Amino acid sequence: YQPSAEKYGTDLILSYFNGSGDDSAKDTGGNTWTTDIEISTFSLLLRPYYDLGGVKAFVDLGLLYKDIENDIKHTSNDKASGDSSEFIYGAGFELFSGKFTFTPSISLSKNPDLKLTNVIFEGSDLLSYYIPVSYSYSDNIDITASYRYCDNDAFVNSTTNTSKTEVDRSSWGIGLDYKF
Question: C-alpha 166: how far from its chain's center?
Fold first, then answer.
């Protein structure tokens, strides 16, 4: 947002994120499982806001496309993957201090079903926490550093309803924001 005399408005936000990570864990039998995950997301959001006198409160409403690929190594090599288009919604606020802007938010969406050979792990709810800090380099360009944590409910095996996998992730980012 650009500070202005307006008390309310709506922003249009386009966002792309791609990340990967590795992890390992032991199951109840003591066997080690390793995973290599790749996640890509694209979102299109409308962000209506209202200025409360120095703090802008906003809600996020939009569409989210998510693609997940998870290479799993155990007694064999498997791949669990899935993609989906979902509705996303959230809320947050924005504070200004000189050339700096702090815009924490929280959002809720759903993960896609993950298909693993003959097994489907049903998609889970995803709660995302996003904490960006931006520096206004010019009227149109901000430099942003951010932290994001995504808390997933467990993906549950749709056949047995017992096996499950959890994929929580956190990421740090730096980038440029262009304002029209």
Answer: 15
Q: What is the mean pLDDT of residues 28-35?
A: 76
How far from 126 is each of 10, 24, 39, 94, 168, CA to CA, in Å? 25, 21, 13, 23, 9
Give the CA angle between residues 176, 19, 21 to the nearest 5°.
Answer: 140
Q: What is the pLDDT of residues 91-139, one digit of tens each?
A: 999 999 999 999 999 999 887 777 777 777 777 788 899 999 999 999 8
Pairing of strands 114-116, 155-157: unpaired
- Gap between the Cα atoms of 10 and 2, Å rounded: 12
Assess contact for 78 and 70: CB atoms under 8 A.
no
Q: Distances in Å between the alpha carbon of 21 and those of 79, 117, 160? A: 15, 22, 28
